[in-house]
User: Which sequence fits this backbone?
């Protein structure tokens, strides 16, 4: 079996404990992973704190930090085929997606490399003649980055890139489900030449996560995962009062009006829900379709869903691979059963196939006459689309916003005026109009409500890893007058 190591304070090491990682396509163990204990996490945080305060890192100019990030971007690009194969093997995400996504991850590091020396302070036109006042943008300190299994390289790039550009140091915890690509990525961080302790990468479960979230030396917790875990993290951060940024799940509406190009919308909906086997936070998992085009649109979706090539994730022709874990498949089956009981109707899919691996087929549930079905409220995090119809624009907007989440939304219409009205009314961090699932390092991304807070991507994310220091400098040589008069 393959073996992976932690990367702490510039050293590769076996963990004090180990576990076996399963190949989701076969369900069989394929690699031995280290499992971080609270003591190892503590050591990594102390290394990050040392690197933040002393040593070469704080002495580097922002331009020099940017150059390290450029080097890392080039290494990621060169290693993309190896990283993609590892992510596919350990998480079941299909090779078609991991190859394309990891090549694009290099662009995130490039974007933040270029941004490192553009994080500027400010000079204030202060209302006192003998004072100069300016603001310094300084890094917050040690960042604890915690990511889920899906798209680990991507979800860590949107944290590491801005945090390192801002001058922070990082302890990154890979998910205990499928950590291989991130543990391997540590070799690239090492090769790029980041000083020891600046980036530490380990894996572990809730114990490691709790230590990271409550540690007194952690200044910012950047988390992607589910809302329940986020609640644990926020409670744990009552100890260190660290700042949190939370990228959580969604139940994103995909709205199709009767004037939409139905063929384009169907293609966008299929990729919006079945890509990544539905294990995507922005999955367009609630289809709201205007009643007059429901049959025509559902017929297209059903035909496409049934034609999807399901199979081994390492084959280029595969379009839907296995789920990451058996636990995930069980959860999806349970939620479908509860929804059928509540009156939802199965249009296609719904049954795990016989045989090895954690496979689940593209599934469509018609909830038009079951508006209280849990399928419309709870996140599947799997290839399951829940459908509901509407008659008017007002009803579409009310249904779209009838969720505790608020991450993404998609809108298909030819009417420019209606698109603008909907954009204004939708309660979501992202609105895609006549497209879906487009992302870029230049565009901020994040949600409201149960989908979390904070933004990743763009300049906003880099500023989020800084704090403002206000400097007052008196320019007068005259003695300070009456000490009891406030100036
Ligand atoms: P999860 O919340 O179970 O786990 C995420 C991470 O948190 C893992 O690394 C896990 O080890 C860690 N963790 C577990 N318990 C912890 C604790 N008590 N304290 C600190 N850390 C702890 O999420 P998951 O099931 O692995 O991933 C699926 C969820 O992630 C879905 O809800 C999905 O929507 C969300 N997600 C969101 C985005 C986004 O950008 N908004 C992207 C991808 C996934």
Assistant:
């Amino acid at each position: 079996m393959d073996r992976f190591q932690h990367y702490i304070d510039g050293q590769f090491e076996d963990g004090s404990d180990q576990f076996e990682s399963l190949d989701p396509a076969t369900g069989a163990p394929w690699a031995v992973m280290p499992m971080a204990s609270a003591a190892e996490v503590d050591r990594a945080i102390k290394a990050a704190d040392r690197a933040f305060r002393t040593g070469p890192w704080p002495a580097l100019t922002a331009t020099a930090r940017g150059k390290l990030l450029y080097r890392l971007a080039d290494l990621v690009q060169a290693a993309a085929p190896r990283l993609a194969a590892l992510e596919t093997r350990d998480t079941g995400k299909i090779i078609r997606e991991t190859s394309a996504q990891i090549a694009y991850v290099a662009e995130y590091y490039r974007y933040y490399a270029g941004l490192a020396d553009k994080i500027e302070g400010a000079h204030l036109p202060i209302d006192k003649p003998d004072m100069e006042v300016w603001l310094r943008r300084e890094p917050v300190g040690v960042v604890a980055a915690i990511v889920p299994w899906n798209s680990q390289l991507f979800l860590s790039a949107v944290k590491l890139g801005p945090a390192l550009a801002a001058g922070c140091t990082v302890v990154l915890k890979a998910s205990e489900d499928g950590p291989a690509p991130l543990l391997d990525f540590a070799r690239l961080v090492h090769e790029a030449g980041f000083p020891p302790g600046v980036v530490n990468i380990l894996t572990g479960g809730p114990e490691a996560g709790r230590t990271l979230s409550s540690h007194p030396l952690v200044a910012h917790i950047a988390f992607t995962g589910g809302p329940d875990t986020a609640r644990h993290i926020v409670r744990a951060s009552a100890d260190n009062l660290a700042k949190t940024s939370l990228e959580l799940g969604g139940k994103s509406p995909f709205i199709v009006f009767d004037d939409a190009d139905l063929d384009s919308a169907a293609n966008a909906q299929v990729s919006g829900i079945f890509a990544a086997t539905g294990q995507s936070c922005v999955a367009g998992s609630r289809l709201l379709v205007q009643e007059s085009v429901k049959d025509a649109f559902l017929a297209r979706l059903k035909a496409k869903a049934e034609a999807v090539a399901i199979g081994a994730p390492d084959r280029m022709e595969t379009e839907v691979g296995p789920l990451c874990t058996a636990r995930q498949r069980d959860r999806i089956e349970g939620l479908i059963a509860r929804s059928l009981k509540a009156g939802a109707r199965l249009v296609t899919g719904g049954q795990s196939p016989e045989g090895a691996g954690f496979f689940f087929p593209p599934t469509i549930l018609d909830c038009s006459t079951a508006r209280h079905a849990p399928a419309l409220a709870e996140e599947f995090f799997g290839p399951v689309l829940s459908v509901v119809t509407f008659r008017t624009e007002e009803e579409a907007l009310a249904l779209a916003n009838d969720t505790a989440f608020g991450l993404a939304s998609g809108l298909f219409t030819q009417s420019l005026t209606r698109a603008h009205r909907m954009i204004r009314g939708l309660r979501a961090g992202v609105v895609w109009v006549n497209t879906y699932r487009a992302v870029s390092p230049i565009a901020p991304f994040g949600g409201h409500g149960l989908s979390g807070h904070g933004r990743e991507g763009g300049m906003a994310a880099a500023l989020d890893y800084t704090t403002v220091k206000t400097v007052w400098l008196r320019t007068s040589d005259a003695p300070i007058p009456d000490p009891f008069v406030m100036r």
Notes: The two ends are 70 Å apart (CA to CA). The chain has 14 helices and 21 strands. The mean pLDDT is 96. Residues 146-150, 155, 173, 175-176, 205-206, 209-210, 213, 224-226, 229, 232-233, 247-249, 281, 379, 381, 407 surround nicotinamide-adenine-dinucleotide (CB under 6 Å).
